[in-house]
Amino acid sequence: MSEDDRTRAMRSPGDGRPLPRRNDEEPRSAGAPAHAFPQRPGARPTSGGPPVADDATVVSSPMADQSPQGGDQKPKGRVYGKQRSGSSPVRPLRGGAESPPSGPKPPPSGPKPPRRRPRARTVLTIIAAILAVLLVTTVGLFFWIDGKLAGIDKVLDDYPDRPADTPGTNWLLVGSDSRKGLSAAQRRKLATGRSAGQRTDSMMLLHLPDTGDRPTLVSLPRDSAVTIPGKGRNKLNAAYAIGGPPLLVQTVETVTGVHIDNYMEIGFAGFVDIVDAVGGVEIDVRAAVNDPKAGLKLKKGKQILTGGQALGYVRTRKGGALPDFERTKRQRQFLSAVVKKAASPGVLINPFTSLPLASAATEAVAVDNGTGVFDMLSLGLAMGDSPVTTVVPFGGSEIAGGGTAVKWDRTKALALFNALKEDKPVPKDILDAS
Fold first, then answer.
1. Which residue, 121, 174, 221, 337, shows the most beta carbons closer than 10 Å to its own?
2. DSSP 3-state assignment of 153?
3. 403: which strand partners?
4. How far is CA 182 from the centre of its chain?
5. Are 168 and 420 in contact (CB under 8 A)?
6. pLDDT score for 181
7. Residue partners of 13: CB distance under 8 A and separation at least 6
């Protein structure tokens, strides 16, 4: 490459100065257009280039300071209006006003690409997996709860002249005064005393009809005068003290004529645990109660009772002209309230309440060997349907078992039990009499 070609390559285009000649060429201006521009008035023509105004400032190229032949040096050019020193090529400034802004790049404009929807097969697979987990969990909980139920042997064994099976389902629900599971501190706090042995504190007969009618819950006063098979006339709770659950079931079936299908009993400790597991039970206390023997002091009106308060509420004999019958009313009132709450969706659906309740219930109750989890679930759902509650009609008292016992009104009591045997609603006059 000749000196002229190198100089031409390094010249800044359009600076208006003549380029070195090539062989037999006329002088040319670097970057001069191929056509002539019209000149403005007052502009001075340039060598082969566009007209330049008189007041225009010409910024020369750094290479303009060098002579094509390496001879005399021309005055140095000006860069951005200032005298430039040196003869090295000028490089553009960085970080100036025209440099690209720093920081994160703005999001690309324009419509976003459409989201990919999951395929139907993927959705079905996820649903199937969830259902499988729920099924396995439910089955596991079923066997876990069923395995924790304590069974009582020979409770519902047959015996001579036992009443035949009757329509509907009949439960004998027993609350015992067993202190099993309570520490000495808990006994003092709950005012349960130190009584040894085990007796029935409350007994109720629950009938679940096959007709879809409301269940019927009948209190059997523990001081009722009855004939205990093989033991003579005595109070009803003596049957449990003498022969345990089997003799109690036989006695109830004999005096009522109602076939018992399921048996369940609960002690003091289990009673407290179940109430606390459901977060307490709302009870409408009809009269203020202050009973130090039961460890209870309550105001009148609706209130939430804890396990300890509920235990005292169903045990107290304070209030009413007939304390024992008032006591059976409170027991029925409380049982309906606690079972209704336990069977409510807010408790059953919530694992933080249903699981502790299931654990407390299975550890607290004892059932016959033929009663399982599904039986208890049906019991809870039926009791949540606001059962009809009553007590066996009574007609005075008599001496039995060395003390005064409650004498049933035989005619009205038979009318009550016959309605249960026939799976019919209890006559209203019997309910009113009770």
1. 174
2. coil
3. 400
4. 31
5. yes
6. 52
7. 30, 31
Q: 359 CB contacts (<8 Å, ≥6 apart)?
A: 148, 277
Cβ burial of 302 (10 Å; 0-12, 13-18, 19+) is exposed
Burial status of residue 81 (CB atoms within 10 A of its CB: 0-12, 13-18, 19 or more)? exposed
Question: What integer pLDDT is reported at residue 65 of this predicted model?
Answer: 46
189, amino acid identity: K
Quick check: 9 pLDDT over 60?
no
pLDDT tops 70 at residue 37? no
CA atoms within 13 A on the CB side of 233: 10
| 408: nearest Cα among 253, 252, 220 | 220
N- to C-terminal Cα distance for the chain? 129
CB 401 within 8 A of CB 238: yes
For tokens 């200032």, the residue is: 82
Query: Is pLDDT of 234 > 90?
Result: yes
Asked if 49 and 28 count as a contact pair (C-beta separation under 8 A), the reply is: no
What is the three-class DSSP state of 365?
strand
Q: Tell me: the pLDDT tens digits for 395-433?
A: 888 888 888 898 999 999 999 999 999 999 999 888 876
Angstrom distance (rounded) from CA 291 to CA 313:
9
> Rounded to whole angstroms, how far apart are CA atoms 358 and 291?
31
Least confident of 79-93, 181-195, 283-297, 365-379: 181-195
Alpha-carbon gap, residue 239 to 198, rounded angstroms: 12
Residue type, 351: P
138 is written with which tokens?
A: 């439910």
Q: Which amino acid is at 181?
A: G
Average confidence (pLDDT) over 142-158: 76
Assess whether pLDDT exceeds 60 at residue 10. no
CB 178 within 8 A of CB 268: yes
H or E stretch covering 144? helix 120-148
CB-CB neighbours of 124 under 10 Å: 10
Answer yes or no: is pLDDT of 200 > 80.
no
The string of DSSP letters for 300-358 reads SEEEEE-HHHHHHHHH---SSSSHHHHHHHHHHHHHHHHHHHHTSHHHHS-HHHHHHHH
